[in-house]
């Protein structure tokens, strides 16, 4: 039996196909977001199914999540990212007690109970400071592809201090740092620290370990270390962090399908 | 109960109103179809879903006709008292006199929402130097200056000190524009020091005796101002009767809240309950009518509870809500997400408690005013919220911040931590601007996630 999870995130759309009997992923894919999210999801799903020699009729259940979940008509059920992240993490890293998820437009902290269910959660407000948007802005300022930022950060010797938490103001600050001759690698390291600091402002005093880092930003080299330093606690990076929410959605689809049987 | 309870749009209300009229609905003078308020500029109604009962119709019409009522009162020669920031004290005194209508000028903070930012009030406040770094209550400044909404009061009172930093700044700016404001002082409530004489206030907070004495003296000055305004003597006997009338409103509201927040199935939506609670503090410029409006709402709620009916699913998640929302639509969003209101703390919960009737009236009012959650420590406020979360059996708490409001910025996080720890329920903090349309997906996600979290917890 095959189920699917679709994570219609703010910057990318992710799909995980799941063998619901074995609770094992069979395929996954990521594409950049577009205007017609439903079509994007449908096309990507068809492609994945085709590659696996499957047909649409083979799908037992589809759960959509992410900020665009309401637009994905292909899905039978819609569930928020918070619940999906928790379900995905409970499957892959069941010992985790805190999830720090940083995506393209938002960041969230999810506290988990001993059984892996959500205890409570915090999400950033309108400000994009603690999100991937900050890194995108930085890449544009430096004229460097986003994928190269990680390799730059490893060369930093003296991370710059980026004091503004607002992305718009920080942009001016970065222009100023560049004009002052600060090396790009130090600016990248400074921005990563600023993002991590912003995330820690959400966490409050009660933070249980293990802490798991998920979301696309966890893929950026240096971000895990920056977060660990800001939190003062060890941080694990989730396996395939960008897909953990779609994985959770696929698992929820499998759960619901099993309940119906 | 005359119709299956549900939340309906304004279009649906048009048809419902026609059917009610055809069925012989009797309405007060301010009655009529809700659609007419859109013509008056309250376009937000087009995006709200409202309860479909005749009682709710009367409540909405009563609320939205307040400006007309104030203008009528002025034409009838009544004295108008604009009370600011005492939340539940000066209006009680004012309505103890004949020929006086009191109202909360700061209630204008909802006009930018109701009129979807087409009032020009916030822009006017901007030009006067009170920008969006302040609470949206700055709309009141625009309302005073433009005189496009309520008539200018004959007496403006404003409490300052511990009540609200934003309000103090806004009212001070108003004073510089030659509006004569009668200031009275409210100290920051603290528990008595060891050995210092103190007493327990209504609601359970404690304060030193000398703070109550100070507030009583300050209210004594307000009493004199009201006497000078009206040429009447505000005797203890009149005050006691006025307190009795205010308590009748509060007792109806207390029963309404008890029924609505403890019923297995929610009998009345969040929006209507929010408006009902507001009536306890300002009476919508007509104390006697506000009692009748609440009594009709209570009868509807009672009938629905007995029938086990309501506009929401019985499985709706029981949410305690902290702080009033700048955008009324967010109360709809909570219910759309699968939640229901089970308890509230809209920053004026002291005004929902009965005023002691076994004390000299001015002493009772002073104790009541000092029981205001805004004038004490946020830890006090959190303590009361914890007690009410348990009393109403709430499964989650939402703390809504008002952009620019100093109280919300400083207190929300602390209250959230205390309530979450002591009640063991998930706590969500959200920020709600006067028009939240652009943020609706984000707000919806948070509220839906809260509902999912509670429902998953129920299942396990």
Q: What is the molecular shape of chain A?
A: globular
Average pLDDT rating of chain A:
89
Please state the CA-atom Rg of chain A, rounded to the nearest Å. 19 Å
Task: Give the strand line-up of the largest sheet of chain B.
Answer: 4-3-5-6
Euclidean distance between termini CA atoms of chain A:
11 Å
Q: What is the gyration radius of chain B calculated from CA atoms?
A: 21 Å
**Helix-residue proportion of chain A:** 25-40%
Structural class call of chain B reads: alpha/beta
Q: Low-confidence segments of chain A, ≥5 residues, pLDDT <50?
A: none
Query: What's the total helix number of chain B?
Result: 18
- Give the quaternary arrangement of the chains: heterodimer
- From the spread of the alpha carbons, the general shape of chain B counts as globular
Helix content of chain B: 40-55%
Stretches with pLDDT under 50, minimum 5 residues of chain B: none
Major β-sheet annotation of chain A? 5 strands, mixed
Number of strands of chain B: 12
H-E string of chain A: EEEHEEHEEEHHHHEHEH
Helix and strand succession of chain B?
EHHEHHEHEHHHEHEEEHHHHEHEHHEHEH
| Distance N to C terminus of chain B | 37 Å
């Amino acid at each position: 039996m095959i189920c699917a999870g679709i994570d219609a995130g703010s910057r990318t759309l992710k799909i995980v196909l799941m063998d619901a009997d074995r609770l094992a992923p069979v395929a996954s894919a990521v594409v950049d977001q577009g205007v017609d999210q439903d079509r994007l999801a449908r096309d990507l799903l068809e492609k994945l199914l085709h590659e696996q020699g499957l047909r649409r009729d083979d799908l037992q259940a589809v759960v959509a999540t992410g900020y665009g979940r309401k637009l994905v008509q292909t899905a039978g059920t819609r569930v928020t990212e918070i619940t999906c992240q928790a379900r995905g993490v409970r499957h892959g890293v069941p010992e985790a007690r805190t999830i720090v998820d940083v995506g393209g437009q938002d960041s969230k902290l999810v506290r988990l109970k001993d059984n892996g269910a959500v205890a409570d959660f915090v999400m950033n407000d309108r400000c994009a400071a603690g999100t991937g948007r900050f890194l995108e802005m930085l890449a544009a300022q430096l004229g460097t592809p986003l994928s190269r930022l990680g390799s730059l950060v490893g060369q930093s010797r003296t991370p710059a201090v980026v004091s503004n938490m607002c992305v718009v103001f920080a942009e001016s600050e970065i222009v100023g740092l560049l004009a002052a001759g600060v090396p790009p690698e130090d600016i990248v390291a400074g921005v990563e620290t600023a993002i991590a600091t912003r995330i820690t402002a959400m966490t409050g005093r009660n933070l249980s370990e293990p802490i798991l880092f998920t979301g696309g930003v966890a893929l950026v080299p240096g971000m895990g270390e920056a977060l660990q330093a800001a939190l003062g606690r060890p941080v694990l990076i989730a396996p395939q962090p960008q897909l953990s929410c779609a994985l959770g959605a696929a698992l929820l689809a499998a759960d619901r399908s099993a309940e119906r049987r | 109960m005359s119709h299956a309870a549900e939340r309906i749009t304004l279009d649906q209300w048009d048809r419902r109103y026609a059917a009610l009229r055809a069925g012989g609905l009797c309405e007060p003078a301010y009655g009529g179809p809700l659609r007419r308020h859109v013509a008056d500029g309250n376009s937000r109604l087009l995006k709200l879903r409202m309860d479909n009962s005749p009682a709710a119709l009367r409540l909405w019409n009563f609320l939205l006709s307040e400006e007309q009522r104030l203008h009528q009162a002025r034409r009838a020669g009544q004295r108008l008292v604009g009370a600011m920031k005492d939340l539940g004290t000066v209006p009680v005194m004012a309505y103890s006199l004949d020929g006086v209508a009191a109202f909360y000028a700061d209630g204008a903070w909802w006009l930018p929402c109701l009129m979807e930012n087409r009032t020009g009030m916030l822009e006017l406040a901007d030009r006067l130097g009170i920008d969006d770094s302040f609470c949206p209550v700055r709309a009141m400044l625009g309302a005073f200056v433009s005189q496009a909404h309520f008539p200018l009061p004959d007496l403006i009172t404003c409490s300052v000190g511990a009540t609200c930093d934003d309000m103090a700044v806004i009212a001070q700016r108003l004073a510089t524009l030659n509006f004569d404001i009668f200031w009275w002082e409210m100290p920051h409530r603290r528990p008595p020091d060891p050995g210092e004489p103190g007493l327990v206030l209504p609601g359970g907070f404690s304060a030193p005796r000398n703070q109550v004495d100070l507030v009583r003296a300050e209210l004594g000055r307000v009493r004199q101002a009201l006497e000078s305004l009206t040429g009447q003597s505000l005797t203890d006997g009149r005050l006691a009767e006025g307190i009795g009338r205010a308590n009748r409103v509060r007792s109806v509201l207390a029963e309404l809240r008890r029924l609505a927040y403890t019923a297995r199935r929610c009998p009345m939506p969040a929006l209507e309950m929010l408006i009902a609670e507001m009536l306890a503090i300002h009476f919508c410029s007509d104390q006697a009518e506000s009692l009748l409006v609440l009594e009709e709402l209570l009868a509807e709620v009672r009938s629905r509870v007995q029938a086990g009916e309501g506009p929401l699913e019985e499985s709706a998640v029981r949410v305690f809500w902290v702080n009033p929302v700048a955008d009324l639509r967010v109360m709809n969003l909570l219910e759309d997400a699968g939640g229901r209101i089970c308890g509230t703390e809209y920053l004026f919960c002291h005004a929902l408690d009965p005023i002691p009737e076994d004390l000299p009236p001015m002493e009772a009012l002073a104790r009541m005013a000092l029981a205001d959650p805004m004038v004490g420590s946020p830890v006090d406020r959190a303590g009361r919220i914890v007690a009410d979360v348990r009393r109403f059996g709430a499964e989650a708490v939402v703390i809504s911040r008002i952009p620019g409001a100093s109280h919300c910025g400083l207190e929300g996080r602390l209250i959230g931590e205390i309530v979450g720890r002591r009640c063991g329920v998930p706590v969500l903090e959200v920020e709600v601007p006067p028009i939240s349309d652009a943020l609706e997906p984000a707000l919806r996600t948070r509220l839906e996630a809260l509902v999912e979290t509670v429902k998953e917890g129920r299942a396990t």
